[in-house]
Amino acid sequence: MRIPISTFIAGLLFGGGLTVSQMVNPEKVISFLDVTGNWDPSLAFVMGGALIVTFLGYKLVLKRRGPLFDDRFRLPTRKDIDAPLLGGAALFGVGWGLAGLCPGPAIASASFAGPNAYIFVGTMIATVFIYRFIKARA
Amino acid sequence: MENFTPVSAAIGGAMIGLSAVWLMASAGRIAGISGIVGGALDAGKGDKLWRWTFLAGLLLAPLIVGFFDASFLEIDFPTTGSLLVLAAVLVGIGTQLGNGCTSGHGVCGNARLSIRSLLATLTFMGTGIVTVFIMRSLGGV
């Protein structure tokens, strides 16, 4: 039970960070992407803050032989640059810009923001499920 | 830039970073939301529970913040209806195809100096900016 409890704490911290930084606010995200208009650069500070802490923290943590409650670190190993990576990121960016929502903030907002959050999260999860279902069978 | 909030943004960002570091230190996992969600749906038996408890924390956190200051929960959805649905489909397909989103590539991958994540981040930032530019030009949002 130590792993699910520790990941619950991680989820709380993550969602707390998304809320305090206003990354959960689609309006704020769209203003961040609106570089040629009334640009609000705040979210660059979210990315910056998260990156600095993660970069330094990973340096310390990944020196250890493994995580506290599991046998090894599970790190992505791929290094190739392929079309799905860039095409997928491009499609994701269009969706992100259209709605001002990416997966984490969308899910976090579902606990308080009402119908628009349900519509987005419900559609996103159904899409992910169908995509993975098809891919597993292909 | 009247809504510029660099301090709360940096504090929130640092919390996200702490979450990513704690998730790696305790469970050995990358804090990539699209990956956690994908696996929550179809991963093997022993690989599911930790994902659901993470997502439970993610859902609960805004309510805790809102308990202390409800203004954090006042948010706006400039895009609604069929465009919102289209956006959700694009985010769903795009993050699965590209193996990550703002958290997995943007934070965790870039913190590991991954070239894949750097290119993915530049790509989704780029198409996101172009999309908002086009929407503004068309008078939407």
UniProtKB/TrEMBL annotation, chain A:
It holds the Pfam family DUF6691. Keywords: Membrane, Transmembrane, Transmembrane helix. The chain crosses the membrane at residues 42-62, 83-111, 117-134. The keyword Membrane applies. InterPro entries: DUF6691. It comes from the Bacteria. This is Membrane protein. It comes from Algimonas arctica.
UniProtKB/TrEMBL annotation, chain B:
It comes from the Bacteria. One of its GO terms (cellular component) is plasma membrane. Keywords: Cell inner membrane, Cell membrane, Membrane, Transmembrane, Transmembrane helix, Transport. The chain crosses the membrane at residues 6-28, 49-68, 80-101, 113-135. InterPro entries: Sulf_transp_TsuA/YedE. It is found in: Cell inner membrane. It is a multi-pass membrane protein. Belongs to the TsuA/YedE (TC 9.B.102) family. PANTHER family: INNER MEMBRANE PROTEIN YEDE, SULPHUR TRANSPORT DOMAIN-CONTAINING PROTEIN. This is Membrane protein. It comes from Algimonas arctica.
